[in-house]
Amino acid sequence: MKSSSLLLFCILPCVVAFRGPGPVYMDRGLYHKKFGEMLYLDYCCGIGDSTRDMIQKIPRDSDIRVVGIDMNPVNVAIARRRHSPLVSFYHGSLPEMRIPKESVDLIQMKCSLIGLMNKERHLQEVYRILKPSGLFLVIQEHEHDHEHDEVAASFFMSTMTTTTTRGNDNLLLDAIFDDCCERWVQDDLEYRLYMKE
């Protein structure tokens, strides 16, 4: 677990950062990025808390730009109001935003994959826009082993559909990205890191 935590803190500063509100425009498919700048996306960012957490792990003087994207316009409005001096937020879904192929260094999805409709389409778009050796970090709630806990066992039976869905999500991710290159659990969250070949 220590090596996994160390990996996260080594990867995020090297691949997720803050440059201020520079010239990045994704509205209506427009996209501009400074030469040499790295781009990190927080997809399905909600009200921007996970995006803020990404920024806090990146040195301010690094050449990394963090952008939050969410499909709910209300979430985007709240995120802009709460975090706009630090990061840019956009409303939309990756398949509709026409982000150029192989232009993103890291994409994070925190606790949102399980509720995503048409997952295969979104994950194929994630793969398309990632650069070669780009990283996709999927963070989900960790499933505990409730085998010997009677109270938890009844709850587990009621959430079996969720467990099956998560298993299918992992199979889909493994199929698109060939395999998970790193997996660890921290603070009741499961981290799965995929790399584009």
Query: How many domains comprise the coordinates?
Result: 1
Task: Tell me, briefly, the overall form.
Answer: globular
CATH class: Alpha Beta
- CATH fourth-tier homologous superfamily: Vaccinia Virus protein VP39
Radius of gyration: 17 Å
In helices, the fraction of residues equals 25-40%
Query: Strands across the major sheet, in which order?
Result: 3-2-1-4-5-7-6
Order of helices and strands: HEHEHEHEHEHHEE
Low-confidence segments, ≥5 residues, pLDDT <50? 3-10, 13-30, 151-163
User: What is the β-strand count?
Assistant: 7
Number of helices: 7
Tell me the major beta sheet: 7 strands, mixed
Specify the structural class: alpha/beta
Task: Calculate the terminal CA-CA distance, rounded to whole Å.
Answer: 25 Å
